[in-house]
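Discussion board: Methods & Data

I've been asked by a reviewer to show the raw model output for two of the constructs in my manuscript, not just the figures. I'm not sure how much to include, so I'm pasting the format here to get opinions. Each protein appears as its amino acid sequence followed by a line of discrete structure tokens. Is this the kind of thing reviewers expect to see in a supplement, or should I convert it first? Here is construct A:
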Amino acid sequence: MLARFTPTWMIHATYDINPGDLNALGIKVVLTDLDNTLIAWNNPYGTEELRDWMRALQRENIQLVVVSNNSRKRVKKAVAALQLPFISRALKPLSIGIRRAMRQYQVAANEVVMVGDQLLTDIAAANGSGVRSILVQPIVESDAWNTRINRFFEHFVMHAMRKKHPELKFRKEFMNERNK
């Protein structure tokens, strides 16, 4: 049961993920959740730190794609200034959105990583799709009302997961002993 929610890696923040390390692992496409992973859920404009990270991904020839459960209208508006491709209505924790992105970009599961801030949606969808996953801490501590429900249950899953896998801790660096 816990395997469904166990991330491959845990990193403090999305922007701490080193694109060079991703490239070394053969990653061609980074799928990312939108709210509280790529941008703060209540601030759709992003930061300069995000833009720097996006440029670093481009230098490594890694495609960044937003995979969100939000409506097409909401995601399109949120990523317009960033000019990012997206998959809306991804239906996470189901693997539908991730599989759609893999078909669209013609990549195998080992060439993709899913980045998200929620075990019960993002990580579960990644594991269900057979792709590696990176759990990040939310950008801001506040959440939309519907996410607060997930966070309540996530607390119990995280506790059980850490008990079973004490090596799983949020880290600043991407590459470590577990990754090699």
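Construct B, same format:
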Amino acid sequence: MISEPPLPDDLRALFAGGVDVGRTLSVPLPPGRSVAAADDAGGRPGFWLSDGPAPAGLWARLRAEHDRSGLWPLLLDALDDEDADYRPWGNGEVTPGRMSSPAGHDPARLLERWWGEHVEDALDDTATPAERDAVTAPYGSRWPGLAPGRPVSADAGRIADGLAEEILAGHPSVRLGLVAVGRAADAVTVVGWQGPTNYTDDTAELSAVLRSWEERFGARVVAVGFATLLLSVAAPPTTRDEALAVAAEHFALCPDNIWQDDEPHTLARYAERLVGDHSWTFWWD
């Protein structure tokens, strides 16, 4: 019986002491290096980063080995592809040490709190109550609660694989990242990503919501940019009403998805594109 090769030292360094024992990875990796946070040079590296663009097909092979390797793959995009530092990834412009644990946050309470905060800011002070309510119609200022989950009949992993290949085909300069994490939702916290910093400086709160979406919609984290996040979704909403409920959660998590949208800036318009869509994109200004 041929045993699988153990993790190389630069990948073993991503795990806390002893957690890497028995981990294996049979997929050859391109040249790369482990990256530590710039403000914590003596700490454990937060992730591994390829030196060049991610090869086609590699993301899916690594995703398939996640259970054995303990490493979740990410497609990592930079603020500026021409930047030699490949911010925030290449220069370690991340802060994993200041993040809490996703398990310590209730996603329902987080979304309800954020919803209330964003509804207050939905329009400028000259807007009438009717204009404010129109932004988040049919809910107005009332938080509708969590959207019901849908049966995940599709293979969530293969849906994620397909999205990864679409990203690489359209943006072949993205690099490959590997994160030592038990589930995809926690990857952004473990690497110390600061993309939503204008709305929360603790990315563990974001991961708590992503965990809930993993369970309710088969969502997986596939790609992360400087302030962008792209998820695959195995069980997206299939009706307008389902999509509206999901759109409310998106607004609570990332109001810029609606505020920065083409006119009109309404939840109803945004919800239209969620029906049957197997990818969710977020951007924080």
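Answer (T.O., handling editor elsewhere):
This is acceptable in a supplement if you add a one-line summary per construct. For B, something like: The longest helix spans residues 156-170.
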